[in-house]
Amino acid sequence: MTKPFKRILFTGAAGNLGRRLRDHLHQFADIVRLSDAVDFGPAREGEEIVIADLAKREDVFKMCEGVDAILHFGGVSTEQPFEPIMNANILGTVNLYEAVHKLGIKRVVFASSNHTIGMYPTTTQLDASMPVRADGYYGLSKVWGEALSRFYWDRFGIETVCLRIGYCFPEPTTHRQANTWLSLDDLVQLLHRSLVVPCVGHTIAFGVSDNPGLWWDNRQARFLGYAPKDSSARFPEPLQGPVDYASNEDITLKHQGGQFLINGPKYPD
Amino acid sequence: MTKPFKRILFTGAAGNLGRRLRDHLHQFADIVRLSDAVDFGPAREGEEIVIADLAKREDVFKMCEGVDAILHFGGVSTEQPFEPIMNANILGTVNLYEAVHKLGIKRVVFASSNHTIGMYPTTTQLDASMPVRADGYYGLSKVWGEALSRFYWDRFGIETVCLRIGYCFPEPTTHRQANTWLSLDDLVQLLHRSLVVPCVGHTIAFGVSDNPGLWWDNRQARFLGYAPKDSSARFPEPLQGPVDYASNEDITLKHQGGQFLINGPKYPD
Amino acid sequence: MTKPFKRILFTGAAGNLGRRLRDHLHQFADIVRLSDAVDFGPAREGEEIVIADLAKREDVFKMCEGVDAILHFGGVSTEQPFEPIMNANILGTVNLYEAVHKLGIKRVVFASSNHTIGMYPTTTQLDASMPVRADGYYGLSKVWGEALSRFYWDRFGIETVCLRIGYCFPEPTTHRQANTWLSLDDLVQLLHRSLVVPCVGHTIAFGVSDNPGLWWDNRQARFLGYAPKDSSARFPEPLQGPVDYASNEDITLKHQGGQFLINGPKYPD
Amino acid sequence: MTKPFKRILFTGAAGNLGRRLRDHLHQFADIVRLSDAVDFGPAREGEEIVIADLAKREDVFKMCEGVDAILHFGGVSTEQPFEPIMNANILGTVNLYEAVHKLGIKRVVFASSNHTIGMYPTTTQLDASMPVRADGYYGLSKVWGEALSRFYWDRFGIETVCLRIGYCFPEPTTHRQANTWLSLDDLVQLLHRSLVVPCVGHTIAFGVSDNPGLWWDNRQARFLGYAPKDSSARFPEPLQGPVDYASNEDITLKHQGGQFLINGPKYPD
Amino acid sequence: MTKPFKRILFTGAAGNLGRRLRDHLHQFADIVRLSDAVDFGPAREGEEIVIADLAKREDVFKMCEGVDAILHFGGVSTEQPFEPIMNANILGTVNLYEAVHKLGIKRVVFASSNHTIGMYPTTTQLDASMPVRADGYYGLSKVWGEALSRFYWDRFGIETVCLRIGYCFPEPTTHRQANTWLSLDDLVQLLHRSLVVPCVGHTIAFGVSDNPGLWWDNRQARFLGYAPKDSSARFPEPLQGPVDYASNEDITLKHQGGQFLINGPKYPD
Amino acid sequence: MTKPFKRILFTGAAGNLGRRLRDHLHQFADIVRLSDAVDFGPAREGEEIVIADLAKREDVFKMCEGVDAILHFGGVSTEQPFEPIMNANILGTVNLYEAVHKLGIKRVVFASSNHTIGMYPTTTQLDASMPVRADGYYGLSKVWGEALSRFYWDRFGIETVCLRIGYCFPEPTTHRQANTWLSLDDLVQLLHRSLVVPCVGHTIAFGVSDNPGLWWDNRQARFLGYAPKDSSARFPEPLQGPVDYASNEDITLKHQGGQFLINGPKYPD
Fold first, then answer.
1. Model's pTM, two decimal places?
2. In this structure, is residue E55 part of a structural domain?
């Protein structure tokens, strides 16, 4: 069967999502180029591997050379001190889009995050047009990536689908994780649609399965035709046990960003 | 199995919904305290019974003493002359929230009504942010309860889920009833979610099953994770028979409140 | 010169606004009927006086007999315990609208209040379509009046202009008072427009002069043609003196309702 | 079984949809009157046939005489030079509504078109309240029909459901066709609901099945109770094959109107 | 002084606005070409005159030849039977835009009308994004012109400013006329801005002075920099005299279109 | 007279706005601390000078020590290669807010820019809730500052007023400059209001005078009470001279960001 692309690039291949997605990427292209900042073993069949530091312009250009489309999952993916986030996620995306632009690449799928909107209360229904409210340096760096890619669309016509990915691990165990859960299969479907649908412009989509209690409305990205097949409803009810309303004071329960709120910049001691 | 609460209070136990819900409340708490203004027989296992006149402050305080959460279904539930509605539904909710506040109770589920918005045309799609348009004294008293509970949240942090309950009887027989139908199972689910979801703040949710032709959009309350399992589509089509467009002039067909429009304050003779 | 009406009724004539408006009402009608619950001296030329308890149906009917339009400023106008507010403002408006309806009166100007929305933050711009957020029993009773008059419009075609009056005293001395100030002349203009403009339906308008820093947008009521001539900018700057950001924690500064927030229902001792 | 109506009129009976719908119309009425500008053979049982030129006032009056409701599918249904469109679709609808009005007919179902909004980008989610953006003379003539029928509702109380029909052919073969596909069964259901639901006023509904990637939100018409049973997801994936981002420059891919954009008025040679 | 253009075309020169504007057009161009369907006397200095029937394609092409911009005020400007409106306003605008397109003209100022939205209640605040609700054939023909010019912008990049002109006569004498009044000077300013502001795309602006009680919000067209200098507040108060609420039943008072509502298609006798 | 503060910090003192504002800052505080990365001469009376590199954490902490409020105008203020912008505007604001947070400073006025929204068309009316669309690295760095300060408000209660400053030079000479002009006096007023109004939370305000043709609506920040006294209407009309519609293709005319669009990242050669 003919594949959609000849060669795609997946960055962040050594990360959690990179490792889980690796075997699913072959359906998209004859050659899957995998990249990360650290060595992660040898290429398998149909793969190419490029070790690249996103903060280094020349590394990034080399990494992007000759690809048809990019799935950009690379960079820091947890709350960290600012310097590494700045290097990998801010300078890194600047380098990436400069390469994309100069090399004539036409579409990027950017792994953004729900932490761009993590400070919204858990009682608020969001859609992609609402102002960002990041919950720490990590979330802010994803705000940066979304704004930067918007600029490259508005100014140069380079298309990006920004996926605000939820909790993408095999099994949710808390209320928040169940609410924001994204199954691997649904993520793969979302990547597929983001790559093949014609004319996506600059789109922000929430990467989330069809869970009960969703905070996020994918209305603006409905044209992608993403139709999640999974739901966290199939997991044991994470709201079991005695209800303790006192916990309502916990900021990780009150805000969509959850635990990230206390991993970021701290109150002074 | 551990239950969510030690003791909950259900008011209005002798009413239509009270009687139908009675056997379903045990899943929520070790002890279900039932209350009404009139005697409704003896307590069963796991129950406590308190007879209380909502218009009497001391009755209400006694009724609320020692409970973890309240399902407030008490008061007048049909269109009536103003005095009884004022006593039970206006003064009654003032007494209730004063008790809730003074006794340190943290959450109420309030049985509001679609009659808060009964004057909207049947061609209008509503959500919880739209201005109320009550269809009579009863609907107005529910507007009062919603506004009062909003105040207690804004000012004192007491949480309330206001359920604008539709037609909650076993079988709908008219177009309007089918459109606004709420199955008992769906109501139980909605009560469950309203009680156990952390951080509900002040929420208005429409209590309605997954019927065709819904007038109401529960978007703002989606975080509750309420997922109706029933639909009035399974009942015999209530739009059968010859269509008579002349009936379009009937105000009970043109407005969402239906029959309540002609049960309330009347045109002068 | 011909006056707009033969006879209008002004309720609440003994109150602050009643006393200040008394000499300005003659432009509206040949006969100004003044009413209050308490004696306030003899009628002057062109006046009629009716002492009436709003909670008494027969008083209210007598008070309304034979008038062309009503300016309803009567009832409790400060934060109070619930019982007097219920009698004058809740039962009182029910009686009023029943009389209006039965007697064939076609338009009411209702003195509502900014305390219907007093719990909104002072950083929020409001318009008349936004959900109410009252700041105490008084504000809630005005929510009641707005909802009740809406019903009488939707159901029976009786027109009401609800004026959410701001700070209507001669001279503002705080930031909040300057922001919400309404001059007497502007109030008179607003009453005039509310009475004479054809087809007002049910309208909510903010009664406020053209002050700097307005929280309220009168867009939906612009058709009234109300064009405030005064502004609190002419008063000494109420933001003088050293800035103390610590006061930002003061709930009367953070919410539009100001001082009313601490006059209403209290935290338990 | 009793049918909803005694006699309905279906115009455009010789067209694509007319021929496919013909056998499905009997469920709506005892007598189905079929009309077109050209001869299309003899009447079958339960049918009446009236040949009528929509541009001729007397033809139209004769065609409408004695019917209970009208399904107006007649007129030009493809992009054409302006003159035939003006005669059939503009003058034709003026004649139709004059007849409807004079003859006391109370409801019309009008076959409008997605080409009323064909100039919107394919990345935009639409609902019925958004301004029209037609993609040629044909689409503009449907804008005319929607505006004309709105007038007849606002001014004379004649009800119309405007169906913005998508791609209604047996099998979609392109991305756009799959996205906008309407199955025949879903169309029949939509006609049924449009005819029998009480109080439809003037409603614009998108005639589309439950396809992935929908551009159109039927929220405002949800009260019709239309629940599509089909989805284009069952057809072979129309996004197969190698992705060619260069095609993103194709205006028929970038706009919802697709091929119609290049069938209409042309750039000068 | 250099003028903005070498040659502009003004159609409808023999009409009310044409005659009043005639002496004001010279500021826009060295040569003002005036056109109408009927003879209106000889050209003055700096003028050219072309008699043209808008319904005739060749007339329209001749009329448009060699102009830099068009002020299209021609066609029928009152409620009339449909045929003349169709010829002049529907076929006429089709011919005009075909000429504009083929001849390479880049901008049109189109005299639309408030009768495109005349069925809105007088209590409703409108802006340009709200759906049209015409009040008769004339208003519908202006809806047509707005939609047609939108198409020519979306598809071919031809710019149009549609002016929904209010009551443009020397002196308003009714409430509605005062509310919708446009002074000649303000109209001239609006024409100037519509012609000279760079990049207007397709814009709908309300042609109205700075009157009290405006129903229309020009927010979306604010970029034009139109700043009305006149107000109907300077005329004698048109709301004088005794108020008669019974007149509220008059449809010409309840709807923005006023008198046009009863000049258009009629109820059957 | 008592001044609002004891000591305020103004960063960017050697820049264009810094030099023009310098003499106006004394009204805000007894001591004005001025800071920049480069030497700009000796302190005058009532001033303190701190030379600080925003990219150096310790510099920034020293600069902020002991101040009551900060006017942050420092950093790069023109389109530049990314590295200097990253250091001064991204790392610089991170350092600043960390210092603010650790040192207990409660309010910042942040000089943001209209280049955060420079890619919007000049025909679009904006308000502060609309998604950002930056026009280059500089604009993106201001998006960063707005998002970072939002986080510090949401998470730690530190207040910031972000001023999206327009064209703040003595005299506008182009259409865009006239449209976005901010007079020095209006800027001073805006700084004053931003400093002294209680409870500003996180606010985005457009820094612009009362010019004709404004693209920006300050509705959400109206509570600041900013009332511009100047208007670019007093300058010679910048739209003089012959109109050349061909220039409509110029991207600096089509987008709000103007010249910045071609100073930023370029198309590949």
1. 0.96
2. yes
